[in-house]
UniProtKB/TrEMBL annotation:
<dbReference type="InterPro" id="IPR036188">
    <property type="entry name" value="FAD/NAD-bd_sf"/>
</dbReference>
<protein>
    <submittedName>
        <fullName>FAD-dependent oxidoreductase</fullName>
    </submittedName>
</protein>
<dbReference type="InterPro" id="IPR050493">
    <property type="entry name" value="FAD-dep_Monooxygenase_BioMet"/>
</dbReference>
<dbReference type="Pfam" id="PF01494">
    <property type="entry name" value="FAD_binding_3"/>
</dbReference>
<feature type="domain" description="FAD-binding">
    <location>
        <begin position="295"/>
        <end position="358"/>
    </location>
</feature>
<dbReference type="InterPro" id="IPR002938">
    <property type="entry name" value="FAD-bd"/>
</dbReference>
<feature type="domain" description="FAD-binding">
    <location>
        <begin position="6"/>
        <end position="187"/>
    </location>
</feature>
<dbReference type="GO" id="GO:0071949">
    <property type="term" value="F:FAD binding"/>
</dbReference>
<feature type="region of interest" description="Disordered">
    <location>
        <begin position="136"/>
        <end position="162"/>
    </location>
</feature>
<keyword id="KW-0503">Monooxygenase</keyword>
<keyword id="KW-0560">Oxidoreductase</keyword>
<dbReference type="GO" id="GO:0004497">
    <property type="term" value="F:monooxygenase activity"/>
</dbReference>
């Protein structure tokens, strides 16, 4: 079908990727982002082969590779430092054709922003509702509470604040407003929404470059996981996932992590030592345990965490949003009508993401969620006895994906 006008709600990784893909196939796109400024925030992402291939299809793969570091060494350990699984990143690269990449969230976001003209990125716009119109399109209602300074606006958006419309219409609306999507609740009012997964995560990027013995590691202990990935500039991101009631917070999160992981192997103490206390981010992990009945509603498509928020145990959150963006753009390019394009998108993406969300949940239960010492010992023994080839095969099963053509 030919291009039309699209509104993308949400300026995160998924929203910007969707906007990039839609523009590639001839659509006029406007991104509406709630935050007043698209700041460089967040931690790090490990991009697997499927995510990298999606970025290639969107035309930004090389730019992301230049900002990323291949993760060739590492694996999974026990708290005493003994190895449960060794990761052979070169073997993964040979099998998948693409290495695992470690990249800052902010670097990936900058690459996607650079792929879009500044005038299509409108910040400080909070979308409060979305609905179908009587003219085969959709309309969003929005307010601009955060646009109080010149910095809180697009560089190419000189209009005064009072000129902002209360509604905007388009042929297509892409909802990419995250795990706690307000618009998902509007479109599916009877869906229970995102629920607490039982885990909370603290993460930070080191304040300085740090020499580490391996690129990417996970360590599984009783009800906890500690991991790191490394970046091209020598800095690293660490994360600590804890089995915890929701809402628990610490007066000094960094000190709490030093206490929680005291006695765990090197380089965990060094990673914490290289971190500023104010750099630690903390959020509870929520997921859509109940899958959505559909990823579309008329001319409205949900994408990324708004559609299929999953636990991070497979490292596939960003990758699945990138796949969504690619499949949506390709469907719009190849299908004869908007309705058939969205039907194709829904069919393909619901099946894939439901499978991965279930696998991620199971991986968490077998990993950091375990607290029974006997079960932990059995798991660790089984992992140590598993040859490398089945480990690589299991890893690749979730990353095997070929992007559709956008041409």
């Amino acid at each position: 079908m030919g291009g039309g006008k699209a509104l993308v709600v949400g300026g995160g990784i998924g929203g910007l990727a969707a906007a990039t893909g839609l523009r590639l196939v001839g659509w006029d796109v406007t991104v509406l982002e709630r935050s007043p400024v698209l700041a460089d925030v967040g931690g790090g992402i490990s991009l697997h082969a499927n995510g990298v291939r999606a970025l290639d299809a969107l035309g930004v793969g090389e730019a992301v590779r230049a900002a990323a570091r291949p993760q060739y060494t590492g694996g999974t350990r026990a708290p005493d430092g003994s190895w449960l699984i060794r990761m052979d990143g070169k073997a993964i690269e040979r099998a998948a054709g693409v290495p695992v990449l470690g990249v800052r969230w902010s670097a990936l976001h900058r690459v996607l922003r650079a792929a879009l003209p500044p005038e299509c990125l409108l910040t400080g716009r909070e979308v409060t509702s979305v609905e179908r119109t009587g003219r085969a399109g959709a309309q969003v209602s929005l307010v601009s509470p955060a646009r109080t300074t010149p910095e809180a606006r697009s560089e190419a958006d000189p209009a005064p604040l009072e000129a902002d419309p209360a509604q905007m219409e388009a042929d297509l609306v892409v909802v990419a407003d995250g795990v706690h999507s307000r618009l998902r609740g509007t479109l599916f009012p009877h869906h229970p929404g995102a629920v607490y997964s039982g885990s909370t995560v603290l993460r930070a990027v080191t304040d300085r470059p740090i020499a580490l013995p391996s690129d990417l590691e996970l360590t599984w202990g009783k009800g906890a996981e500690f991991g790191h990935i490394t970046f091209v500039d020598g800095h690293a991101e660490w994360h600590a996932v804890l089995t915890s009631p929701p809402g628990v917070r610490y007066a000094d999160a960094l000190a709490a992590m030093r206490d929680r992981f005291a006695g765990w192997h090197d380089p965990i103490p060094a990673l914490l030592e290289a971190t500023r206390p104010d750099a630690v981010l903390h959020h509870d992990i929520h997921e859509l345990v109940t899958p959505l009945p559909c990823f579309t509603a008329g001319p409205i498509a949900l994408l990324g965490d708004a559609a299929h928020a999953m636990t991070p145990n497979l490292g596939q959150g960003a990758g699945q949003a990138l796949e969504d963006a690619t499949v949506l753009a390709a469907a719009l390019a190849s299908e004869p009508t908007l309705a058939s394009a969205l039907a194709h998108y829904d069919t393909v993406r619901r099946h894939r993401t439901r499978t991965l969300a279930r696998a991620a949940r199971q991986a968490g239960r077998a990993g950091h969620r375990l607290t029974n010492p006997t079960l932990i010992a059995l798991r660790d023994t089984a992992l140590r006895l598993t040859p490398s080839r089945p480990v690589i095969s299991t890893f690749l099963r979730h990353t095997r994906w070929t992007p559709p053509s956008l041409g």
